[in-house]
Amino acid sequence: MIGNDVIDLRQSLIESNWRRRGFIEKLFTDAEQRLINNYHDPEIMLWILWSMKEAAYKIYHRQIQIRAYIPKKLSCSIITLDKGIAKGIVICSENKYYTKTLIDTEKIHTTAVLNPENLNRIIEIEKKGIVKNENGVPYLAVFSNNTLKDISISHHGRFEHMVTIKEN
Known about the structure:
The protein is of the alpha+beta class.
């Protein structure tokens, strides 16, 4: 299973007033709030953590097939953060999701998987052959063998990413 989230940093400046009272407390755990407040660029850390939550939630939703607004139930930890790449773990209801976040001046893009080995097998795909189930979960229709493949779609502002896990 796979999830992904992209944040257009220019668009987030227009759409979000993340410094308003109560915003961070409503969405982030105490540990995450400390990460945000102690990072040299709090806004970037906020969006890294938010994109980790969103990418992991897409897998969680695929697993349970029920939509829910549960940002504080998704607890993020950053394992490494260096040279524009963050690797982390998101825990939700005893499920563990492994994340990789790419950070540049224009956007933040996070992918999440159940198996950490799959973080190196994520590929971008074209927007063709996509179907959604009754819960709005997207799949790629593979006509050669009449199957559905897990994909994740994310778009924000100027950016859109459609990803899947490459077969062995």
